């Protein structure tokens, strides 16, 4: 049996433990949760504060989401608005406007559509520009219909390859920014070059062989003769002279004449509008190899 002294000693030890246990149990009761902040330790206060911040964050996020849902348009709404715009008769498509404008511009840009001439070609004839391949081809097409002859192939073949001809024919060539005319006769090839060159370049030799190699047994270059024709007074009228010489080859067989240079471009523009080529204006009172000086009032030979 334990002594009374020992029992009193154990009671002293157990009294503070029982108090602490009772206090802990009392704190855990629900009636005392409201006063938890006042009686809790620092750690519990920190936990409660963190939880309150998270709750505030969650509240803010939910309000933001609700506001975004209010302001964001739905997919169906956007599709409906697009369909309504397409369905409305007043809505116009800009691409169609551009296409209509281009068609109108193309119509207004035409000068002589039958021979593929535009307003820009008319301006070239009125100015001092070199003639391009489209103007040369338009003149050759009219000559071919008018005289029903061989040759007069597109000038673009100067850069590619001509088809061979097998009879008398005429051809306008392009050689180093210069237009000139050749004519195949029975036994030789004649060249009319208003620039005054007295030699044949390699590119021109190639073109002559391509055009006339089938009609001549030997090399056509060896049978080529350069004629003394009227010379152009400038650097930009070679195409006009080439067309005039082509007409003279076909109409008279000889292009050795003196042209009225001031009237040649206007004449070329006029016969394009008439769709018929006629003889270019000439200076008949003077020999083909003379030039008249207005200031001096004298005549001298070109040779």
Automatic annotation (TrEMBL):
Domain Ubiquitin-like protease family profile as annotated: residue spans: 190-266
Ranges annotated as biased composition (Basic residues): 94-106
A Pfam family that the UniProt record links to this protein: Peptidase_C48
PANTHER family reported in the protein's UniProt record: PHD-TYPE DOMAIN-CONTAINING PROTEIN
Region ranges (Disordered): 75-114
Molecular function terms from GO: cysteine-type peptidase activity
Protein's name according to its UniProt entry: Ubiquitin-like protease family profile domain-containing protein
Keyword line: Hydrolase, Protease
Lineage: Eukaryota, Metazoa, Chordata, Craniata, Vertebrata
The species this protein was found in: Xenopus laevis
Family: Belongs to the peptidase C48 family.
GO biological process, one term: proteolysis
InterPro entries xref list: Papain-like_cys_pep_sf, Peptidase_C48_C
Biased composition (Basic and acidic residues): 75-85
């Amino acid at each position: 049996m334990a002594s009374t002294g020992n029992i009193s000693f154990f009671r002293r030890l157990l009294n503070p433990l029982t108090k602490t246990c009772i206090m802990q149990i009392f704190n855990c009761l629900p009636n005392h949760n409201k006063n938890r902040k006042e009686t809790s330790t620092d750690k519990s206060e920190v936990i409660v504060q963190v939880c309150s911040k998270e709750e505030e964050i969650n509240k803010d996020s939910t309000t933001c989401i609700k506001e975004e849902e209010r302001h964001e348009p739905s997919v169906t709404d956007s599709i409906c608005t697009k369909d309504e715009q397409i369905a409305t008769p007043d809505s116009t498509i800009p691409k169609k406007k551009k296409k209509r404008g281009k068609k109108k511009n193309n119509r207004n840009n035409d000068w002589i559509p039958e021979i593929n001439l535009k307003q820009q070609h008319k301006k070239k004839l009125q100015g001092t520009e070199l003639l391009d391949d489209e103007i040369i081809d338009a003149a050759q097409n009219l000559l071919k219909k008018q005289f029903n002859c061989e040759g007069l192939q597109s000038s673009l073949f100067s850069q590619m390859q001509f088809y061979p001809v097998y009879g008398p024919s005429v051809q306008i060539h392009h050689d180093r920014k210069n237009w000139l005319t050749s004519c195949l006769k029975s036994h030789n090839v004649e060249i009319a070059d208003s620039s005054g060159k007295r030699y044949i370049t390699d590119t021109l030799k190639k073109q002559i062989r391509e055009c006339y190699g089938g009609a001549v047994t030997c090399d056509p270059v060896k049978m080529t003769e350069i004629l003394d024709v009227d010379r152009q007074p400038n650097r930009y009228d070679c195409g006009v002279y080439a067309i005039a010489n082509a007409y003279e080859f076909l109409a008279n067989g000889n292009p050795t004449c003196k042209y009225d240079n001031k009237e040649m471009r206007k004449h070329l523009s006029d016969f394009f509008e008439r769709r018929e080529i006629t003889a270019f204006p000439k200076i008949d009172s003077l020999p083909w190899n003379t030039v008249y000086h207005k200031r001096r009032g004298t005549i001298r030979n070109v040779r």
